[in-house]
Amino acid sequence: MKKLLPFALAGLIASCTQEKAVQMSMTNVQLIKIDTVLRYPNSAEQILTWRSVDRIDYITYEPMGNYYTVGAKMTVMVKR
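-> structure tokens emitted (80 positions)
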């Protein structure tokens, strides 16, 4: 029993430290709407609404210094 204990502990530690993989897929989206909001006090941000070819909407927050045009197309990674 004492000879197996170090191997059992090593196996337990090794099984708890493995990395988890996140599955992502690439999809094409088009910018359909830009809104401005006060998300934090004294700090305005842009809310960008993107629509994929599958008619799914995605929302991102961007600083006011970044400029986008409605109708812009982009490829993004989304979680499966």
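The mean pLDDT is 85.
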